[in-house]
Design goal:
225 residues; alpha+beta; Glutathione S-transferase Yfyf (Class Pi), Chain A, domain 2; Glutaredoxin
Length: 225
């Protein structure tokens, strides 16, 4: 039995943590959270994560939430996830990049992927349109950064690339025109070829099959354009 467990829901940002765990080649188990059944709001789950969200990393009996914290913790233990540095300013810049993914990109991803959650079905298209427009600026920034380098940090893959990849995939699946950003598209192709990413996606797909067999797989309705 592994000493590491990742609580996830298919399609969620828990895939980011799954990718970094796979990149580190750590042995870990996954636990599927049944959102459609309200499992994330139960007292049992809230004892693990009072915020009622995923991911949750259980590491040797201790729970840790939030991708930024999980990535930072694992990097402190094992390295390999962020460029090595002993400079507090450089480390803080890395945290800023992680927070760019989690607090700038991620909320827009959610509004693009699940707009009705924020404004109901009648206003969903308006919410998504505004999120599309807001996301353009940041995809332009990412595309420019990747225009002359393979990864966010030049030739060195990092956990930032895992988070960017999840954001890209999530909005692409919701109809956002990612094809406007060729360098970001190329980055997504490189990510898709990484063995760790393939293994993380396989875990996600296995979770989807479990939920689908139980009639609990969430499938947001596409916005008609």
């Amino acid at each position: 039995m592994s000493n590491i467990t990742l609580y996830l829901s298919p399609g969620s940002c828990a895939r980011v943590s799954a990718i970094v765990l796979e990149e580190l080649e750590l042995e870990f188990e996954t636990q599927v959270v049944r959102f459609m059944q309200g499992e994330h709001k139960t007292p049992t789950y809230k004892m693990i994560n009072p915020k009622g969200k995923v991911p949750v990393l259980i590491y040797h009996g201790q729970a840790l939430t939030e991708n930024v914290a999980i990535i930072t913790f694992l990097n402190q233990l094992y390295g390999k996830l962020l460029p090595p540095t002993n400079n507090p300013l450089d480390f803080s810049k890395q945290l800023a990049d992680l927070c760019f993914c989690s607090s700038t990109l991620h909320p827009l991803v959610t509004r693009i992927r699940m707009p009705s959650f924020f404004a109901g079905e009648d206003n969903a298209k308006t919410v998504q349109d505004l999120a599309f427009k807001a996301m353009d600026e940041f995809f332009q920034l990412i595309d420019k950064t990747l225009s002359d380098q393979k990864w966010w940090y030049s030739d060195n893959w990092s956990a930032i690339d895992a988070y960017l990849h999840w954001c890209f995939w999530r909005v692409q699946d919701a109809g956002y025109p990612v094809e406007k950003y060729q360098h970001f598209c190329d980055h997504a192709e490189r990510m898709a070829q990484r063995p760790a990413v393939k293994r993380a996606i396989a875990r996600d797909n296995a979770a989807s099959l479990i939920l689908e067999s139980e009639g609990l797989l969430f499938k947001p309705q596409p916005i008609v354009r």
